[in-house]
Amino acid sequence: MTSHKFLSYLVTALLFVSFNTAADILVYDNNSNNSYAQAGAASLGQPVTVANSGDFDTLLASQVWSVVLVDCPSTIPASGWTALIAYINGGGKVAMSFWDWDNDSGQGDPGLFTAFGFNTATSFSLTDGVDTLSAASTAAGSVVFAGNPGMPHSSWFNSWGDDGDVFTFTGGEPVAYLDFSPDPVSIVNANGNAISTFAVDEWSGPGAAEYWTGMAVYLLNAGTTPIPVLSRSGGLVLILLLSIFGLAVVRRF
To answer: How many domains does the chain fold into?
Structure first.
């Protein structure tokens, strides 16, 4: 094999690796009012794909995503939550904002309890100017809300009737509390790969997009990332260095 041919093969292979290992983010957003998850994902500067009720399962299965953000204050995926539950149980990283965790409206799934690590869920509706959200004094709470300009938070829209649930849980740790309950409204599961929270779409004022960013950052740094994260610039540097090394080896032999 000539040195030029070797170099060509090496560069082609490395380009494939480097440009397909970015921190790809999948966002489910069928009909939120404020698109906070999309904004939070975009702030990370990585490729973002937005799914709706009709194509969520297909996109979820299309690759291993670095993190999946589910912004669901109303309409759920057309096929329900079976695919997402399997994805989490298989180690996929997911943050989910949802209103029917307890399934009292028939839009949840018992499998969500196990996947997200809670035992019971009790519905609530937010009252603007009254109910105050605070970060939990845990590692997860500290990371998720680090530098959040809207915390503690008590300004809420009244767009949706059911705004989420208070959780009891085993394992894992709390992420956030509302002041009316000693139990959390957001938790991370025992495996550290799934965060459950209330309908963040009800958040009024600054801090909601940052909440999503914080959840994504926590999950991206928890355990091992399924797909190695390699920046475009970092990939190009690696290509250059390995190409030079490979060419030197070929010339030597």
So the answer is: 2
